[in-house]
Design brief:
By secondary structure, this protein is an alpha+beta fold. The protein is built from 6 helices and 10 strands; from the N terminus they run αβαβββαβαβαββαββ. Helix content is 32%, strand content 31%.
Length: 160
């Protein structure tokens, strides 16, 4: 299914007419390794995390690769009391992907809500996994916001 996600994502981007680059690279086991493999700054990366959030269900949360989630701030930003990170089995069941392969995208690829903080939405460019540990998408954040249509909430991250 990872191949299907990667192909579906590139088809969406190509059909949009927006400018993007598909990067092929060696697998990185961390955000730092992925940035080196892609030849991009760590701060340009977007990490995607699947969560189960009360009243919202499945949520793909996107944070900068140079940031980490502050749980208290995330709960406040989403207006909820509880959330949890999805297990590897839950991630694979919903998306067909493993950790490190989840793109900064939700619908129509996955039945989930896409959430990003204002700090990340204000960046110029981003690079994120394209449904594979060895393929990434690089594009302008402005274009990503228009196409992926995330729910933008107050900042919920802090420096890693």
């Amino acid at each position: 299914m990872a191949h299907d996600v990667s192909e579906g994502l590139t088809a969406i981007l190509t059909a949009s007419g927006r400018t993007f680059s598909l990067l092929e690279h060696v697998e990185g086991r961390s955000a730092e390794e992925a940035a080196i493999a892609r030849g991009t700054p760590l701060s340009m990366g977007g990490k995607s995390v699947l969560m189960r959030v009360e009243r919202l269900g499945e949520v793909v949360v996107v944070v900068g690769s140079d940031r980490k989630i502050n749980g208290r701030q995330l709960r406040k930003a989403l207006g909820v009391q509880r959330y949890r990170f999805s297990s590897p089995d839950e991630l694979r069941s919903l998306t067909g992907l493993a950790y490190g392969e989840l793109p900064a995208w939700a619908s129509p690829l996955f039945p989930a809500t896409l959430v990003v903080g204002e700090d990340f939405a204000a960046r110029d460019e981003l690079v994120f996994a394209a449904g594979s540990a060895t393929r990434s998408i690089r594009m302008r954040v402005f274009d990503w916001l228009a196409l992926a249509q995330p729910r933008v909430v107050v900042t919920f991250t802090e420096p890693a």
